[in-house]
Amino acid sequence: MAKLTIPAQELMYPGHAACPGCGAALAMRLLLKGLGPRTILSIPACCWTVIATPYPTTALGVAVLDSAFEATGASISGLRAGADALGLKDVNIVGFAGDGGTADIGLQALSGMLERRTNAIYVMYDNEAYMNTGIQRSGATPWGAWTTTTPTVHGHPGKPELKKDMMGIVLAHRPAYAATLNPSFAEDFERKVERARDIVGPRFLHILAPCPPGWKFDSAQTIALGRLATDTGIFPLYEVVEGRLRVTRKTGSLKPVSEYLTAQGRFRHLKPEDIERIQVGVRATWEELLKREREDLSRAMTPSAPAPAEATLAAK
Amino acid sequence: MTQKVLSGNYAQSYAAQLARVQVISAYPITPQTSIVEKLADFVASGELPAQYVKVESEHSALQVCLSAAALGARTYTATSSQGLLLMHELLHWASGMRAPIVMGVVNRAVGPPWNIGSDHTDTMSQRDTGWIQIYAESNQEVLDTVLQAYRLAEHPDVRLPVMVTEDAFYLSHTVEPVDVPDPERVDRFLPPREPHAVLVPGTASRLGSFTGPDYYVDFRHQVAEATERVPTTFAAVEEEYERIMGRTHGGPFPTYRVDDADAVLVTMGTITTTARSVVDELRASGRKVGLAKLRMFRPFPNDAVRALAATADRIGVVDRSYTFGSMGPAATEVSAALYRSPRRPAVTSFLAGIGGRDVTLQEVRHMFDTLLSGAPAATHWEDLEIEEGAVHG
Questions:
Q1: Do A66 and B210 touch (CB under 8 A)?
Q2: Assigned fold of B2-191+208-245
């Protein structure tokens, strides 16, 4: 019998208030399995404010601090400072924010936390729009997606701008660890959570969180759609440790993006040329990722080569 | 006890050090900067073993304090003007979470036009955030009040955040002799914080949460009740401070020569010192005038104001800020307090010292003259430079 790699421990309880098939609920469940009970979560305004259920109940088996929408980065800096001041040891300080709370309104506080090198984990669970308020576009909404504020009536193409590159923004801050995670690949997900847990310094996890009501797909298909997101190259899985990038899931060849896009109502209006445009972009990004991985590897294999600046700084 | 020559800002820093704050977070803004610079020196030299988180905005500064306080730490921050306005949202979070944060605020004008002079618009705009507000008249009062503020904020009957304010430049950058109490004496007055309702790692717990109207009303009502307990608690805190330190600042609404006064001026902050000299001068010439210092603005000392109205015939309230479309904010509060009083003297609102404009002895004399002349109660903008109509004329 194969060894189980997912911890049996459950710190997210039944009775939570997530929609059926919610990727964000799965993200939390897997995250807490890897982090364990001595975790303090700072949660700003987002779906999880509600999913955790109202006072006096809670769906989480850990300590949770609510905060203002834009304050997650500062909140985890404060929790770490408080823990250090009070001599609280062996505690995971974790910010758990949505894409709007991270890529848009919370970007400044995230940048501050990364620059201060706060010893904490920042999680962005990315359902690619303001889902808790009813599917309004965010900076993390992909090009061409329908949302309630990027309507597709009268020939409008959905969101006319590209998705904000949060990993690029975070990596520019030289974090101790950064990774993309997808709950559809639970083993890879858990391995990254455990790796992040054991590293000291600012850590960032970008988790894809498929949203059946927001993306318009059958809630029974969350896992399958999530797998397509990665296997088409739309949401590649990789990690960056002290400046060195490694792609953690590679298949022989990428599946066509149309398989992922046509499975969702939010992309239903896209024309064949729109899909081709997305395909070209995804292929280019994937090639860039593989190129960087090769470069990082060859640099690591050359003893005389100077260490990349970000790795040196991250080690301090 | 050591006597040092300190600015109001350094009085804040020394008080925070004496309070043995555990987490400091701040963002620089003129004229608050020397408070947080001095604290950085204290932390760097090891004189204050605190975590000091230097953040990218005032919003984040208050969030750092809030999160550290949520684990049980004693926290301090300081700001001014625009920085306080940026914190506005988190001010509500702090009181709603019952976080006993103490914050120094240097009262400065709000732009536009940009102006770094003394003005109370910044803190008056935070009236409804659930913070206790105490305005200082001297640098000694700054230091003493910050220490008292921690006792008040952490008191089991209160558990609310407190801002201790000082007028920009008149206090922040003016040096005065200040008695700095010995640390052992401060420790007797202010023991370490006893954490209450804080996050405990390893437990299923939530601080903040969300509710419908079912519980929400009760949470808000608890804040209201805690606020109502402030006057009693503050009196006890000041009494104990006097017992240990030998000094008091007279409660939330100390009065001066108000017995048999025909006209009383209510002032806040440094204008009080000027007005006190004018009272002495006018009393010497036989005119019956007095003074009341509005030291605590939130909660508002309604009972003390009504007690004053029992003897004074005319009350003037001097505000260093203005509520557009109404009158001075303190004048509004005094008027509201008097409406429920059996005796309701006329209340005149004087707007003076706005944006750092100097308030002279002559100007205060003019205010008393206005009150004593029996002119109907009105709102007076004192000492305007620009003639009416000249701006667009």
A1: yes
A2: Rossmann fold (3.40.50)
